[in-house]
Design goal:
The complex is a heterodimer of chains A (428) and B (903). Chain A is α/β, with parallel strands linked by helices and 428 residues long. Chain A is 43% helix and 11% strand. In chain A, a hairpin with a 6-residue loop joins strand 5 and strand 6. In chain A, helix 6 crosses helix 9, helix 12 packs antiparallel against helix 13 and helix 12 packs antiparallel against helix 15. In chain B, helix 9 runs parallel beside helix 21, helix 9 packs across helix 23 and helix 15 crosses helix 16.
């Protein structure tokens, strides 16, 4: 039996995405009609909960559970908001782009369903500003949905109303942080907010708000259409559904593929990415984007689901793998990543803005041959300072993960830099 | 109460706090930066990390930020935990990555919270070898100096400036370790509270620019508790002096008055004390001749002669002089010949305010409680310019209602969450004034009308709250709707407040305000009333019940009195020159004042008075709170406290009044309304362990060297008969009773934040109670409503009703002698509505001639959009406009030249 790929079934590389007619012809907006006419909001939430859909933005929090924290009923504060986080800015991640550019109506349909489930009357799609093509496709799709009565007042006569706005980000990584994003929409500095309170109770403009990732939202129509049992059956692990995995680095065919949740690292890299390029071998990999811990060739049998990757000492994150090969300098790679995180720190909490400035200086010195042995310990201690809970949001702990794991797996490479007073990968 | 465990020791604390506040209140030294007792927690700096344990069996624990963690029942933490200590030292190390090693040349050095916290965590060695980030600094105007390289990104400045004080021109720019706190470009900071940045900033980014011009380290400043002289709110201050000049003003906490902050006029208005216009020697002026300086002894001899031989004395008191000085004058002149020294209109207003507070059921609200009000009606007052700290308080009060609505899951100390939940929602604040006010931007409704209409609105609100209160007939629909909204908001509030006062110069408006507050009280609400008055001791002067100025003129012209004694008062600011000139027909005019002015220039005898910085005294603020200020430095040369000059020429007083306590004691006996005023501070004979309280810090330097150019013998420190404070580093250095606190300092806490150690609970009252003694309490009886609402305002053809406009910088007499304040004072103008200006064929900047009883003045026109037709605004008391007009009169205006347009 051919593998089911509900998220990408409408996506044809190199071709324009389906317009609303084509989308509907393929069964699109059937879930909206089903839910808005025949299901109570709680039933939609229930279906998503039963499916066990884990948030695809990186943290893997149960989506249905997240919705269930939104105050419902007559006394609930209004307006409520749904925000689709399309600010895909993690280095190495490009899975949401595929969905945004390839099948924008799927996202719109998912957003309508999610908004209906939490009874939100306003939805925002918060889009990375470099995604110009996605912006065009989305604008088109939203306009079409409005013209067919799928957005706006009294959607398809159901009594449910929703306005959907496309908000294009100012272009900073921190804007993709759930609460920094809310501040950005409000026109404030995109500093994250402290939690509690969670956005579900006090989010945009102090009102109940749900923030979901693009891929998460795109799963909703299929769950509503086909049910939790079907969704769980798609996967090869305890966590349901498919997952869009990606691979970048010196693999033969970098790309993104919708595969059953729980596909092994080995299968993604060898069968889909085509293995390493000629003359390169695998040294290590970041399984879920730049802010996850390194894994090594010893981990190739790890299933790529949230629980298994965590058990292996890293995080599934976005599921987009960055490959480190044996002819690239691990120190240089980590320096490159840390420069990104340091540059993108919002400047709110000291361990983040200060720690990352310090880390970049130390890594820069080591890479340039000016490093000292004690710098390596200093790096480890700084990475420890950026642990979860020590900082205000997850940016700094995310930045610490590749560093701490690189120090664990590639310590001898750091030491060689110090001993040789130069980067061993660079020609003298 | 809940129990928490800190390093395995149990403590009982108030419920509902965060762990940082709780630990500081318990006396623990836990370092912090972004937290501030008035700005609360945001969790940015991560400096207050502690280890929290699940229970007594948990040995691993986890690092949490104390400021963001509720101190709930059974919470178990360790401050001493090695991992927590290392983390805190690590955070300081990161703060120091970019911080310059310029402490020796930094104005903050020696009172720097960053220095204190660095020492507290033990971080001492730099490991960072990279470049420090650097910035360009900005010129932020005359008050605040900017040195961004020192910034540690704690965000306190913008949180105070924007979130708390409502400013918009200071922001956080850029990101990562390069966040820039400044304006979009150099320029004068717009907020009236910008000076607080110097105290809010934990290091030397924002410092006091006035101090910079005559810099002295905190430990080298001689300091004493004092009270601000620049409006009637009576904010508590700590002035600092060195070498006989005043160097700066810092905040002195008083939870009942000003809390943690001051306005810029209060903070930077002090330099009049150092002014070149100070009178330093007694002057005798022969008729028509130049003034001749004489010694104090010679002046007193001459004066005693005058007094002994005169036919009668009229004493003209002053609302900017202490109770003691006013009373001393009253004793010299006699109660019947003692005049309050304000304009007749001003006196009627002040008396009316006293009557309202004394005879009605509405309580005069301590300024320090105004921020808790949850519905406010402002009738007629431009508080930002007239009583500036009310502006800051009202900016907090509008958050009360939405905060209450948002409460529940969000603890009140969680500032980000609170602001996220409250957003732009604001509780009720209604403002009715003739011209646009700064607070309009946060008001539920801002209504522009002539004073009579403002009063009518008030009468209407009162009549809606209580049927027995008289209404104003013939209101329009708009006014009725507004009045109903106001009445409704006040009625629903838990702490409703009515603010009015003397600013607009209208008795009807004051009466209307009283009716509103009384009607609220009648309907069982805890009605608060705040009546503003113009000067530091306006309330004290009103309570002393002197006669009107006209009485003095009559006494001189009738020949009953041939000698006039004018106390700390430039009468040319109060009344038209034609009236004041008539006083100078007296044989002797004796002026006692600290600065040369139009009155002292004409007096036959001038006695150099000590300013607040060189004298002690009691002031009664507009709330009715008696507060004592103390000498910061001894008066130099022949300068003396006004009351001492007066005692020296009052035969009965000379022997009886040895110290200021004797004066206030006699005052309390003679005028019972002042009973308790002497308790505002401990008396002169108060000692702690036999010691006086030292005005100089332990580390005060140069004692033996300061006057070595004059004599190598160390001079004896000046005696201070009047207070329990000593001009010395010898004496009590601990925590004295609150009215005597000369500075905030504790071992390890050199910055202003040492204040934490002077409070039982951080943010709460001072240990021993906030200073001051209330002299006025409401009467518990049914109010006698003011019955007569004014008729509607009707403009008269060709004439304009003059209303006073105030400027925080410029309208107040003494502060304009500070260069910074003078720089920001606008030049004189006349405000007209655009339609009235068009009727006169004049545009902005055009010249008009204003016809006043004092004569004709030419003024450029400023257009104010919302000004009602037929009303012209006069910026009273600006340099160049002193005493020109009395508000409430109608005056003619003629166009002189059209103006350039625009502007």
């Amino acid at each position: 039996m051919e593998m089911e790929t509900p998220l990408t079934m409408n996506i044809r590389p190199g071709r324009r995405p389906p317009d609303i007619a084509a989308y509907e012809k393929n069964g699109g907006y059937r879930a909206v009609r089903k839910a808005l006419k025949g299901m109570a909001p709680a039933e939609v939430t229930g279906a998503v909960k039963d499916a066990g859909l884990k948030g695809r933005g990186g943290a893997g929090f149960d989506a249905g559970q997240k919705w269930s924290f939104v105050p419902m009923g007559e006394d609930a504060p209004h307006p409520k908001y749904l925000v689709v986080n399309a600010d895909e800015m993690e280095p190495g991640a490009f899975k949401d782009r595929l969905l945004l550019e390839g099948d924008p109506h799927q996202l719109v349909e998912g957003a309508i369903l999610a908004a209906y489930a939490v009874q939100a009357e306003v939805a925002f799609v918060f889009l990375r500003w470099e995604y110009r093509l996605a912006a065009r496709q989305l604008k088109q799709a939203v306009a079409e949905a409005y013209s067919r009565g799928l957005l706006g007042r009294n959607i398809i006569g159901s009594g449910f109303s929703l306005d959907l706005y496309l908000h294009i980000s100012g272009g900073r990584y921190i804007c993709g942080e759930e609460t920094g994003l809310l501040n950005a929409i409000e026109g404030k500095r995109a500093n994250p907010r402290s939690k509690p309170p969670y956005p579900q109770t006090s989010g945009l403009w102090g009102k109940p708000t749900v923030v979901n990732n693009v891929e998460t939202i795109c799963n909703i129509p299929h769950i509503v259409n086909n049910g939790a049992g079907w969704f769980k059956g798609l996967s090869r692990s305890a966590e349901g559904g498919t997952k869009i995995y990606g691979a970048s680095g010196r693999v033969r065919s970098p790309g993104a593929w919708e595969l059953p949740m729980g596909t092994t690292l080995k299968e993604v890299l060898e069968e889909h990415a085509g293995g390493m390029q000629e003359g390169y071998s695998l040294r290590g990999l970041l399984p879920g984007g730049a802010s996850t811990d390194f894994l090594t060739p010893a981990h190739l049998d790890v299933k790529m689901d949230f629980g298994s990757v965590e058990a292996a000492g890293s995080r599934l994150g976005t599921g987009t793998i960055i490959v480190l090969d044996d002819r690239s300098c691990p120190v240089g790679m980590v320096l490159n990543l840390e420069r990104f995180f340091a540059r993108e720190s919002c400047g709110w909490c000291t361990p983040c803005w200060g720690g990352l400035q310090f880390i970049v200086q130390l890594l820069g010195d080591i890479e340039a041959g000016r490093g000292r042995m004690e710098d390596i310990d200093m790096l480890a201690s700084l990475a420890g300072m950026l642990a979860p809970g020590h900082t205000y949001c997850a940016l700094a702990p995310g930045a610490a993960e590749p560093l701490a794991s690189a120090l664990r797996f590639f310590r001898e490479d750091f030491e060689r830099h110090v001993h040789q007073k130069r980067c061993p990968w660079k020609h003298a | 109460m809940v129990r928490i465990f800190v390093d395995n020791k149990q403590h009982e604390i108030e419920a509902g706090q965060n762990l940082l506040a709780a630990c500081l209140s318990l006396g623990f030294d836990l370092p912090y930066f972004c937290w501030h007792p008035a700005l609360h927690s945001v969790g940015a700096c991560r400096q207050c990390a502690v280890k929290q344990f699940r229970d007594e069996h948990d040995t691993r624990g986890r690092i949490v930020m104390a400021c963001m963690t509720p101190a709930g029942e059974g919470v178990r933490i360790s401050i001493d935990d090695p991992e927590a200590r290392a983390f805190r030292a690590g955070v300081i190390e990161l703060m120091m990555l970019n911080h310059p090693h310029d402490c020796p040349v930094c104005d903050e050095g020696g009172e720097c919270h960053l220095q204190d916290m660095t020492v507290m965590t033990g971080h001492s060695r730099r490991r960072y070898r990279g470049k420090k980030r650097t910035f360009h600094n900005q010129d932020l105007g005359p008050f605040v100096n900017h040195e961004m390289n020192r910034c540690i990104q704690c965000y306190r400045c913008v949180r105070f400036y924007r979130d708390y004080a409502g400013g918009s021109d200071l922001g956080a720019f850029s990101l990562r370790s390069q966040v820039y706190f400044g304006r979009h470009e150099s320029g004068v900071l717009e907020s009236e509270f910008s000076g607080n940045l110097a105290e809010v900033c934990p290091t030397g980014v924002f410092t006091d620019k006035s101090l910079k011009r005559h810099y002295t380290r905190k430990w080298d400043m001689q300091t004493a508790p004092s009270v601000c002289m620049h409006c009637a709110l009576g904010c508590n201050i700590i002035p600092g002096s060195r070498y006989g000049s005043l160097r700066r003003i810092s905040n002195r906490f008083n939870g009942q008055v000003n809390g943690y902050f001051l306005c810029d006029r209060g903070r930077f208005g002090y330099e009049f004390v150092n002014s070149a216009r100070r009178l330093r020697r007694p002057l005798l002026r022969k008729a028509g001749g130049a003034p001749a300086p004489v010694s104090a002894a010679a002046a007193l001899r001459r004066l005693r002669g005058i007094i002994a031989g005169c036919r009668g004395i009229v004493g003209i008191g002053s609302p900017r002089a202490s109770l003691e000085a006013n009373y001393a004058l009253r004793r010299l002149a006699g109660p019947d010949r003692f005049v309050s020294g304000v304009s007749d209109g001003g006196q009627r207003l002040a008396r009316l305010a006293v009557r309202i507070l004394q005879t009605g059921p509405a309580r005069s609200v301590p300024p320090g409680d105004i921020h808790k009000s949850d519905a406010v009606l402002v009738l007629g007052e431009d508080v930002t310019n007239f009583a500036p700290m009310l502006d800051l308080a009202l900016r907090q009060s509008v958050r009360q209602r939405p905060l209450r609505d948002a409460a529940g899951a969000i603890p009140p100390w969680d500032d980000t969450a609170s602001r996220g939940a409250v957003q732009q929602r604001r509780g009720p604040l209604f403002i009715a004034t003739p011209a646009a006010a700064r607070l309009d931007a946060i008001a539920t409704a801002a209504w522009r009308a002539a004073p009579a209409e403002i009063a009518r609105l008030g009468f209407m609100v009162a009549s809606l709250l209580d049927q027995d209160a008289p209404a104003a007939a013939g209101q329009g629909a708009e006014e009725r709707t507004l009045a109903a909204a106001i009445a409704n908001a006040l009625e629903e509030a838990e702490r409703p407040l009515v603010i009015s006062g003397a600013g607009l110069g209208s008795e009807a408006v004051l009466e209307a305000a009283a009716n509103v507050a009384w009607a609220l009280a009648e309907s069982g609400r805890p009605a608060g009333l705040c009546l503003t008055l113009p000067e530091a001791n306006s309330m004290g002067a009103a309570l002393m019940e002197g006669g009107p100025l006209s009485l003095a003129v009559e006494a001189v012209e009738s020949g009953e009195a041939d000698t006039v004694v004018i106390l700390e008062n430039d009468l040319y600011r109060r009344a038209e020159p034609s009236i004041v000139n008539r006083l100078f027909k007296a044989r002797h005019v004796i002026a006692i004042d600290s600065l040369d002015n139009s009155t002292t220039e004409r007096a036959s005898v001038v006695l150099p008075a000590a300013t607040f910085a060189e004298s002690d005294g009691t002031l009664v603020n507009s709330e009715g709170r008696a507060q004592r200020y103390f000498k910061v430095m001894p008066p130099l040369g022949d300068v003396m406290e006004s009351w001492r000059w007066l005692a020296g020429i009052t035969p009965a007083a000379e022997a009886a009044w040895q110290t200021i306590d004797d004066v206030i004691g006699d005052l309390e006996k003679e005028l019972p309304v002042f009973t308790g005023a002497g308790l505002a501070a401990p008396g002169a004979d108060f000692r702690i362990g036999g010691q006086k309280v030292a005005r100089q810090a332990r580390s005060y330097s140069g004692r033996t060297a300061m006057s070595a150019n004059l004599s190598v013998n160390e001079p004896q420190s000046p005696a201070d008969r009047d207070s329990p404070l000593a001009f010395s580093m010898e004496g009590f250095q601990g925590q004295p009773p609150p009215p005597l606190i000369p500075r905030y300092w504790e071992p390890g806490w050199n910055s202003a934040q040492a204040l934490n150690k002077f409070q039982e609970e951080v943010g709460g009252p001072l240990r021993g109670g906030d200073p001051g003694k209330r002299l006025i309490e409401p009467a518990r009886r049914r109010p006698h409503y003011f019955q007569q609402a004014p008729g509607p305002f009707s403009r008269s053809a060709g004439r304009w009703l003059l209303v006073p406009l105030y400027h925080i910088f410029g309208s107040e007499e003494l502060s304009v002698f500070s260069p910074g304040i003078r720089q920001l004072a606008p030049s004189p103008y006349l405000a007209l509505s655009p339609s009235d200006a068009a009727g006169l064929n004049i545009t902005a900047g055009g010249l008009v001639e204003l016809q006043t009883p004092a004569g004709f003045i030419r003024l450029p026109v400023r257009l104010i959009d919302a000004l009602p037709a037929g009303v012209a605004g006069v910026p009273v008391c600006l340099p160049g406009l002193e005493g020109i007009v009395s508000p409430g009169i109608f005056a003619g205006i003629n166009a002189v030249s059209e103006g350039a347009g625009g502007a």
